[in-house]
Amino acid sequence: VQLQASGGGLVQAGGSLRLSCAASGRTFSRNFMGWFRQAPGKEREFVAAIRWSGGSRTYADSVKGRFTISRDNAKNTVYLQMNLLKPEDTAVYYCAAETKSFLVVTMRSGDYDYWGQGTQVTVSS
Question: What distance in Å separates the CA atoms of residue 15 and residue 94, rounded to the nearest whole number?
Answer without folding.
Answer: 20
